[in-house]
Amino acid sequence: MSMGGMFVKILMASFPMMFVPQMCEDGPCSMTEKVSAWSWLSFVNVMTFTSFMRLYYVQGHREHFMIEYLDEDDEVSENSLTEQIVQYPKIHSRLVTLNSQIKTANTVSAAMFLLNTMFSSFLILYMRYLDTTTATVLLTNSLLVQGKLMQIRESYTSDDLALSTVATVPKVFNVIDADHVVKDEPVDLGEVELAVSTTP
After folding, report:
1. How far is the C-alpha of 65 from the C-alpha of 69, rounded, in Å?
2. From the first residue on, what is the mean pLDDT of each consecutive set of 10 residues in the chain (200 residues)?
3. How many domains does the chain have?
4. Does 163 reside within a domain?
5. In this structure, which of 46, 137, 158, 196 has its CB flanked by the most CB atoms within 10 Å?
6. 184 part of a folded domain
């Protein structure tokens, strides 16, 4: 549900030409008039959406990995994973890679979002301003996505290795999942005694 809500925010923020109310010659613009107005700006909108889809994919892949291999334990400290995960090099390596990927994807998306918002806002407000709803929708869409980008940024700038970017409340995976914890093999004391007695 959280990822679905994020997709709607991405869609509206990437295509302000489609979702922001605008003024045309004979009144409010139709969807056709909005889309056909600025071909080059439509390309910027599409590129912004593409960068967000890449971020969306990496975010979902990272979250699925953490749910599968990590867990949240209120009885231990939030940074206990930093020490425990060293014993699991494959999980550690994969998590570090995913954190690096989400950093790159988030940085690219933030840059494209900034450019798209600046160009679109200028042209819409200067050439096609309808009424206060035009500015309100532009501002609302920008703030919603900006808040999400900042939440994702926190996942790779904080001290926590596995900070969720999907949970609506702060959530830190701080232990290895029980299904993936390596347990010591049980020792049969009878076999140990037999081995000792037969040793020359």
Report:
1. 6
2. 78 84 80 72 89 93 93 83 88 94 95 91 82 84 85 88 83 87 51 44
3. 1
4. yes
5. 137
6. no
